[in-house]
Design brief:
alpha/beta, six-stranded parallel beta sheet, globular, about 230 residues, binds adenosine-5-diphosphoribose, single chain
């Protein structure tokens, strides 16, 4: 097929080799913190300082992190592939942009963005957010990390679903397939006859739904796959 349209979904695994922890691997973030304490609106209401501190720590780590060959290969694919490429990420670390990717769809938000719970205004988050920071737009003391927490609606779903409906290839990279709606994208892609590929260190929860799997580290598997696509 000449110039297939490609939808890519990335998860924490693509940033693992850049030194950022994943969530569900051995010793991952959800082994260190309870999701209900640091990644839910209820947790934020109960103890905003704990949540702000959790994201300040992750923001500082992401700020210092360097993209790896997996991120760089996807930026190259976006630049050189003649068909459509939509890069959707569950990650909030900003490493795709650091690697040169553009128009990255952050369905779970981003560490470098702040959100006002009162007026929905977004602005560039400082490296260290404080609890009760005033919104630059409405001045209410209701700034929060611009992260989609459990129980909240992921961002940009209309755009993602529209792209999946047109996809010729769907690729999932470094995600365990535990969290919906992202884990359901492969089903939508299969429904329209897209070719589906999983590139993961360990088989995901949804590996059986993928026609093709390329197991291994993203810094190895992703550049090899991008070469295949660009050479085809
Ligand atoms: N290369 C490729 N894959 C890797 C690598 C690597 N170097 N290291 C780990 N992985 C894989 C693991 O095998 C695992 O399947 O990355 C996956 C990471 O899974 P999770 O930790 O569950 O991360 P993710 O799937 O992105 O989580 C989804 O859950 O907690 C929420 O909002 C959070 O966006 C996150 C969502």
């Amino acid at each position: 097929m000449t110039h297939p349209s490609i939808v890519i979904l990335t998860g924490a695994g693509i940033s693992a080799e850049s030194g950022l922890g994943t969530f569900r691997d051995e010793g991952g973030l959800w082994a260190q913190h309870r999701i209900e304490d640091v990644a839910t609106p209820e947790g934020f209401a109960r103890n905003p300082s704990l949540v702000v501190e959790f994201y300040n720590t992750r923001r500082a780590q992401a700020h210092d992190a360097v993209p790896n060959a997996g991120h760089t290969a996807l930026a190259r694919l976006q630049r050189e592939h003649k068909g459509e490429v939509l890069l959707v990420t569950q990650n909030v670390d900003g490493l795709h942009e650091k690697a040169g990717s553009t128009d990255v769809v952050h369905m779970h938000g981003a560490l470098n963005s702040a959100l006002c719970s009162t007026c929905d205004h977004r602005w560039a988050a400082p490296l260290e957010m404080q609890v009760g920071e005033a919104c630059p737009n409405c001045a209410a003391p209701t700034a929060r990390p611009d992260i989609v927490w459990f129980g909240e609606m992921p961002y940009h779903m209309d755009r993602i679903e529209a792209a999946l409906m047109q996809a010729d290839i769907f690729v999932a990279i470094g995600t365990s397939g535990n969290v919906y709606p992202a884990a359901g994208f492969v089903q939508m892609a299969r429904h329209v006859g897209a070719h589906t590929v999983e590139m993961n260190l360990d088989p995901s929860e949804t590996v059986a739904l993928f026609e093709d799997t390329r197991p291994g580290k993203a810094s190895i598997t992703v550049p090899a796959w991008v070469d295949d696509i660009l050479d085809s």
